[in-house]
Predict the structure.
Amino acid sequence: MYEEGAWIKHLRTNAKSAFFLTQSAAPYIRKAGGGRIVHMADWTSASHRPRYKEFSGYYASKAVIQALVETSALELAPSILVNAIAPGPILPPQGMGKREYQAVMSATPLGRWGGPEEIAKAVRFLCESDFVTGETLRVDGGRHLY
C-alpha cells in the first residue's frame, strides 16, 4: 500500500512546484511580451497507462502536470504557450542491472535509451513553435506503444 507521506511528497515536488512556477513566471513572461513554459511530465501518465506498482503518487503528480499544462495554456494564451515533455527511457537509473537495461531497450521500439539530447531537442521544438500549446509531448522512443 502507498504511504500518505510519499503521496504528498510527490504531489508537492512535482505538481505543486509546477503550479507555483507557472503562477510566478507568468507575469514576468507577459511583461516581456510573451514566451513559453515547458514542464516535465512522464510517458506513463501521458499514455494514461500506469506501469509500475507503488508509484501511484508519482503517476498522479505527473497527471496533474498534464492538467495544469492544459488549463494554463487556455488561461495564459495568446502571449504564453504552455506545454510539457513526457520523457520515457532517457537515462538508466544508477545501479540498474544489465538484464533490466536490456529489457528496457527491448521494450522500446527504437531499441535504445534516448539520452538528454532528445529532451533538449523536444524542448527546443516547443520553444520555437508559435502554434503548439496545451500539449504533452512524449519523448519515449515509442515505448508507450507496448
Summary: The first helix runs from residue 4 to 31. The chain has a mean pLDDT of 93. Strands lie at 35-40, 80-87, 136-139.
